[in-house]
Design brief:
Length: 98
């Protein structure tokens, strides 16, 4: 197999993986917001307790929960974009080696 063909195949695989990451991020969005609504009800019942996310962010109300969700979604979206970009670069390189 030629190097151009291999680069093209790997580039296509990375593009597919990046698209899957972005789709899963979008599919999980509804569940995240539903969970945030449930968590906001729990937070309202226990105002004296300070909750923190895994990243150390304070979660005191619904707005904090939504911001935490948006931060998590941004990380997933950036990961998907990086994988898509890597696939694009490999496909571009494959054109030069053909």
């Amino acid at each position: 197999m030629k190097i151009g063909t291999i680069l093209g195949i790997v580039g296509d695989a990375l593009n597919l993986a990046g698209a899957i990451i972005l789709i899963l991020n979008e599919i999980g969005r509804e569940k995240d917001y539903r969970d945030a609504g449930t968590a906001a009800k729990v937070l309202a019942k226990m105002p004296d307790i300070v909750f923190e996310s895994e990243e150390g962010n304070r979660l005191a109300n619904f707005t904090d929960l939504v911001l935490q969700i948006l931060r998590r979604e941004k990380k997933r979206a950036v990961a998907g974009l990086v994988v898509l970009f890597a696939g694009f670069v490999l496909q571009l390189l494959s054109r030069f080696y053909e």
